[in-house]
Amino acid sequence: MPTNVESSRWSQIVAWAITSLFVIGFFLSQVGAWTGPILGVWFVGTQRPRRGFLWMVALSFIPGLLFGWRKFPLCGPLLIVEHVGWLLLAAVLGVLPFTFHRLTSFRLPGFLSTLPLPLAAVAVPILVRMLNAGAASSIGLSGFFILWFAAITIWMWNRESRATSIFFGFGFVLAGVFELSRHFDVAVLHSSPFFGEIFGWTCVGAALLLCVWAIFHPVQQKSWAERPQAVARLQSPLTGQALKLVSEGGREALVSASGERFPIRDGIPAFLKPQDLVGDNGKYNHLYATIAGFYDDTQRVFCALKGFHRDAHFSSYMCKLEVKPGDSVLETSVGTGLNYKYLPPGAKLSGLDLSPEMLGNCQVNLRRCGLDADLYLGNAESLPFADESFDVVFHVGGINFFNDRAKAIAEMIRVAKPGSLLLISDETEKHVKEIYEKGPGGHLYKNRKAPVSAPIDLVPPEMQQIQLEQLRFGDTYALTFRKPTAGK
Question: Alpha-carbon distance 482 to 429, whole Å?
Fold first, then answer.
C-alpha cells in the first residue's frame, strides 16, 4: 500500500512565481539587479572557493565579451587586447566581494555572517583606487542594501527558515530603507564626496574587522581523541583488525597492529581503497563530486515546483526507524546528512559515504542544525566497524547503483545489533527514467543492464518482518527488516 505525500498547490504557485522572477531577471535589468546578486551568493556558496571564483569570473567575463564585441575599437590589435584586459579586470573585481563572502561568512556567528558581501562590495573599489590599479566604480548605500539583501536571502535559505512572515516583513522594511538610501545617494553621497569617503572607509574598516575575526575564529573540528567510543568500534575494512588512534605532528590517524594506516582529513577518517572506485561506484562517485554543491538545493527546488511537502516525504520513511535517545545510529551513504534532522534528539549519529564532497556538505549541514556526528569516508560494501556496533542501521539513496548490493546489505546486517530494525530506501525505476535519465548527467543512467528494483530478494531469508512499501506516489520505496535476536 503506497504512502502518498500530499502536495500543496499554494506552495507550488509560490515556487513557480519566484522561479519566474529569477528568469525575468536575466532579461530585465531592474529585476536582475536584485536577483543577480542572490544567484551569485548562492552559486559561490556551492563551490570550493577557488573553483567558485574562476567560474564566476568566467560567467561574468564571457557574456561581456560576447555582447560587447561590437564596441571593440577597430584601430588595432593592441587596443583590442587592452579592451579585453579591462573587461577581465572588471569581472575579477566584481567577483572579489562574493569570494570574500564565501571565505569568511561561514566562520562568523549568526546574522553577522551576512555582512561580508556588502562591506566588501563597497571596500573593493576604495582599495583599488588607493592602489592606483585603475578606475573602479563605487557603489552607494542603495547598492550596499541590495547586496545585503542577497546575503540575507541565502542565509535564510540555507537555514530553511520557516518564518515567512518575518522574511516578507523584512523585505518590506528593506524596500523602504532602500528607497531612502537611493535618495540619500543622490542627495548626499554624490553631491558630497566627503560623506561618500566616510561611508566607503567605514566599510573598509568593518570588512577588515570581519576578516580578522574569521582568521582567529576558524571552524574547529572535534578531535578523535574526544571520541573513544567511536574509535573503539572501528576496524580495518581490509583485515578486520582493531584500530587505535595516533597523533603525529598534530595530525591524527588510525592504525592497526599490522601497520595499516588510515589518515584523518578535515575530521573525517578515510577508509577508501583504489578498488572501491571502480565500476558503478567510481562512475557515480564522479557524478556526486560534480553535483555535491547543488544536491540539497536542487532537491528543495524540485519538491517546491512539484508542490511536494519535503518534510513529509523525509518523515514518511524515517518514521519507520526505531530510534530512542542514546541509541547509536549509522547511516550508510549518508550524503549531505539531511536525514539526521528527522531523528529523535539524543541519538549518537554516525555516517559513511563514498564521496568526500558530499561529506563536506554534511559537515556544513550538521553545523547549521546544531548536530554532531562521526563521519567516515568509505565504501558501504566494506564497513570499517566491528560486528554488532549499532542499535540502528539504515540507508537512503545510492544502493540502486552499488557495485555489489548484496554485500552492502550483508554489511549493514553485520554491524547492526541483534533485534535491530534496518531500513533501505531508494528511488524506483519510474523515478530514474522520468527524472534522472532526462536531467543533467542522464547518460549515466541510460543503457543499464537491468531496471532498478528494491533489493528485497537480496535480504537473507533468516531476517524477520521483511516489508516493502512504496512512497511518494510510488517513486520511492522503503524496505524494512529486523535482524534476529541471538538464538532465533
Answer: 25
Q: Which one of 265, 285, 301 terminates a domain? A: 265
Write down the pLDDT at residue 228: 92
Domain that holds residue 237: 221-265
What's the domain count of the chain?
3
Confirm if 334 and 395 have CB atoms less than 8 A apart.
no
pLDDT tens digits, 333-344: 999 999 999 999
The reply to whether 207 and 227 lie within a common domain is: no
Q: Are 417 and 447 in contact (CB under 8 A)?
A: no
Give the span between the Cα atoms of 177 and 142, in whole angstroms: 9
- 155 and 277 part of one domain: no
Least confident of 41-55, 113-127, 282-296: 282-296
- Return the percentage of the chain with pLDDT > 90, whole number: 39
Residue 149 and residue 237 share a domain: no
Whether the per-residue pLDDT at 161 is higher than 70: the answer is no
Q: Is residue 4 part of a domain?
A: no
Of 314, 286, 310, nearest to 298 (Cα)? 310
188, part of any domain: yes
- Residue 106 Cα distances to 16, 151, 378, 472, angstroms: 29, 12, 27, 34
Higher pLDDT, 439 or 216: 216
- What pLDDT was estimated at residue 173? 52
Q: pLDDT band at 5, cuts 50/70/90?
A: very low
Distance between CA 372 and CA 382 in Å, rounded?
24
pLDDT tens, residue by residue, 310-367: 788 888 899 999 999 999 999 999 999 999 999 999 999 999 999 999 999 999 899 8
d(C-alpha 463, C-alpha 456), whole Å: 11
- Asked if 68 contacts 87 with a C-beta cutoff of 8 angstroms, the reply is yes
Q: In this structure, are residues 134 and 89 in contact, taking their beta carbons and an 8 Å threshold?
A: yes
Bigger pLDDT: 437 vs 77: 437
Q: What is the chain's mean pLDDT, rounded?
A: 84
Grid cell 560587447 is found at: 68
Backbone angles phi, psi at 198, to 5 degrees: -60, -45
Kindly state whether residues 441 and 296 are assigned to the same domain.
Answer: yes
Q: CA 328, CA 27: separation in Å to the nearest integer?
A: 52
